[in-house]
What we know:
The structure holds 2 protein chains of 2 kinds. By secondary structure, chain A is mainly beta.
Amino acid sequence: TQLLEQSPQFLSIQEGENLTVYCNSSSVFSSLQWYRQEPGEGPVLLVTVVTGGEVKKLKRLTFQFGDARKDSSLHITAAQPGDTGLYLCAGSYNTDKLIFGTGTRLQVFP
Amino acid sequence: GAVVSQHPSRVICKSGTSVKIECRSLDFQATTMFWYRQFPKKSLMLMATSNEGSKATYEQGVEKDKFLINHASLTLSTLTVTSAHPEDSSFYICSAPNQDFGNEKLFFGSGTQLSVL
């Protein structure tokens, strides 16, 4: 059973548009991470958030951890074709074991 | 950063054969490693936690006799898919934590694409 639900599942947009991906759970996580994965490769870590309400920015990407540490969002400003990929949130409960979200597949067209 | 090497990257085998996948932490020691399975266009599903010197811990629904895990040293964990069948075809990924990197300490291998004919 997936404990982390991501929405939307698929997203297809034009270059320059903004988008937000959501990651929701009924469980409280000690930390939450966001990854991006290309086909045939392992996931690449984008960011880790650990404090409720925390906001982190990585160039055009803004990540937020919910106040209750049950949900998170990823906002991309002015999306580019290079942002295309599978975006995964993943949570942990004070251990090294990660539980991955259901994933959001993003396609950005030029 | 730390490097996790996974081998082979791709394997094609006949139904009924066994396939071994290796996961190595190249410049750090890992008492724990994690094995994930990923179906096409889907997320990663945790299969088991590999523990150095002891038995692996399997997630619910994962067959222990089907997916044999061995963690004989602090830098190597192996996953053997026994008597593979076409439904075992999938992308398998390992990861290992390096405690020197704080919260961002989990490093992933590049994955193994298994195709069973």
